[in-house]
Amino acid sequence: MAESATGRRKLVPNLAVWLIAGGALAVVLLMIVGIVLLTRDYEKKSAAATAECQTATTASSIEGVSGPKAIAACEKALVMDSTNSALMLRLGLGYRASNDLKNAEAQFHDAIAAGDDDALYWLGEAYEQENNIDEATKWYTQSAAKGDDSAMTALGVIAANRQDSKTAEAWYGQAAKKGNSDAMYDMGLLFLKTQDTHSAATWFGRAADKGDADAEFQLGLIDDNNGDKAKAKTLYRAAADKGNTEAMNNLATLLLADGDADGARKLLQQAADKGNMFAQANLAQILMDNRQLDQAKKLLDAAAVANEPLAMRRLGELYYEYGYGGDAAGSPDYATALGWFQKGADAGDADSMALLGLFYELGHGVVVNLDTARGWYQKSADKGSVLGNRLLQNLTDGTGNVDEVS
């Protein structure tokens, strides 16, 4: 039977409705797809920003973090993920690396409020940097209660600085049980201060077993002082290979005693290049002995500017014993030497005190004054100087002293 006109007219509106509905559905689907794509893109960018923040704040120590770079990266990441407590912590680390302690503390507080326990330690550390020890102790204690062994070690250091050895030992012990090598090392220092070298060596040994270079150096120093030079060399070498500049310096001293001047010079140069001015002054001594006086003076001037007492004494010796700045015959420049010995003595160098006393006894650059000489000899001897003690004895028993020029 043929379809009526009326039936066809009814189908047309129905078809239009379906077309409109289908179009609307398509728009909705497109919107959903767009939102999903935008969300994925945002999440991808947020993840990339978070990774950049993490990379910028990942280092073996806070000194290894580039503050401005970390701040820029972590601020960008936080804009995209404003409730992420880990990003708040890392932004705080960026400010801490830039020595902007107030902003660092604000970020650490925000991170703690958002539930990040790691920020407890860093907030304590920031307050400690400001020398606000009471506030630092408060936050370190909260961090330690959460099991943070670095906070336990920090509390041990605070107690040790307050001469509270019992509390310090308790905190170090807790941290050491968790495997913290810094706590083991600090425990060794605690025993070393009481002259208990056996216990100190035990704790240094535990830290050294974990690869702690400072502990290896201390063990080497104990063996060195006990006369076991071979074992000391091995330990100094292990620490030096890890970058410990004190170990480089002491190993160089032992090598010099063995006649290995080249090996000693290389080690002292390495230590000096890493900023150890004591080693730089000792490197200058090798140059002085080789009559490379201008080169030696250059090194000593730089070390003295950095307030290294040994460099001040070496400069005095350069003008006194080596005749630098004197006449063509190499006579001592007493006035300049006196000035450097005075600076060295004022900086606490015991042998500078002894040599300054000698100048007052012999009248080099000053009027003879035996009382002043005796006073400097006494100060030098009280600080453990063998030279100061010898000069004091000679003056006291009437033997008197002569120039120390070799």
Q: How much β-strand is present in the residues?
A: under 5%
Question: What is the number of helical segments per DSSP (H or I, 4+ residues)?
Answer: 21
**Shape descriptor:** elongated
Rounded to an integer, what's the Rg over CA atoms?
34 Å
Q: Low-confidence spans: pLDDT under 50, at least 5 residues?
A: none
Distance between the termini: 136 Å
| Total beta strand runs | 0
Structure overview:
The protein is built from 21 helices and no strands. The chain is mainly alpha-helical. The chain has a domain at 63-146: Tetratricopeptide repeat domain (Serine Threonine Protein Phosphatase 5, Tetratricopeptide repeat). The mean pLDDT is 90.
Question: Keywords for this structure?
Answer:
Serine Threonine Protein Phosphatase 5, Tetratricopeptide repeat; 406 residues; mainly alpha; elongated; single chain; 21 helices; 0% strand
Ordered list of secondary-structure elements with their pairings:
Blueprint: H1 5-56, H2 67-80, H3 85-97, H4 101-113, H5 118-129, H6 133-145, H7 149-161, H8 165-177, H9 181-193, H10 197-209, H11 213-225, H12 229-241, H13 245-257, H14 261-273, H15 277-289, H16 293-305, H17 309-320, H18 334-346, H19 350-362, H20 370-382, H21 386-396
Quick structural overview:
With 406 residues, the chain is mainly alpha-helical. It has helices at 5-56, 67-80, 85-97, 101-113, 118-129, 133-145, 149-161, 165-177, 181-193, 197-209, 213-225, 229-241, 245-257, 261-273, 277-289, 293-305, 309-320, 334-346, 350-362, 370-382, 386-396.
